[in-house]
Structures are given as structure tokens and as C-alpha cells.
Amino acid sequence: MIRSATLQRIAEVVMVLGILALCQPWNFFLHRYSVTIILIGLVTFMLTNWFGSKVVEDDDDAPRAPEGHP
What we know:
This protein has helices spanning 4-23, 28-32, 34-51. It is mainly alpha-helical and 70 residues long. The longest helix has 20 residues, at 4-23.
């Protein structure tokens, strides 16, 4: 299974590639589907953020190491 952080990074790259496809003037196919590419990256990013790994809250009762230098 792909980790959530890796999938988020892939989604970011897809969004940037969609923006580059929107700005380039040479290939009409890429220009036509650039918004679709951006939206696919955006939806993927949002879903990985929503369903990604949960942040573990800090346990206040757990013993802690002394702060400062030994």
C-alpha cells in the first residue's frame, strides 16, 4: 500500500504538471485537459489528507525525559 505522504507528494506533482500543461502553447491536447489534470491532483490530495494516517495525540500521563542537559 502506498503511504499517505507519498501519495500526497504525487498529487502535488500532478497539480503542478497540470498548471504547466495549462501554460504551455505547443500541445493542444495537454492544454485542453489541463484543468482535468489539476482537478485529479486536487481531489487526490484532498482524499489523502482526509483518509490519511491519523496524528497520535500526546499522552499527558506518560513519563517524560528530563529537559535540558544531563
